Amino acid sequence: LGTMLTAVSQFAAEVMPQEFARLKVPTLLISGQYDQIIPPELGRKASQLSEKVKYWEIPATAHFPMLEAPAVYLEGVREFLGS
User: Fold this and answer.
1) Predicted pLDDT of residue 24
2) Percent helix, strand and coil across the chain, each rounded to 5?
3) Which domains does the chain have, with CATH numbers?
């Protein structure tokens, strides 16, 4: 399982940035501060590839910020959608 996760992570790190660079619509990219599955660093890098990408890191959460801090998560999503 560890090898499979590493392979998927490596693929995502190589391919996904290319996809973010092609975005044509405003996109909110949310990361948990302590996410070990998709590290926040990847989100920060992705947001630098396109002016369309807004990166938001939710403090004191991991891979599921929408479950770990639902009020904070919803407030941020609403703010983004209202902008």
Assistant:
1) 95
2) 55, 15, 30
3) 2-82 (3.40.50.1820)
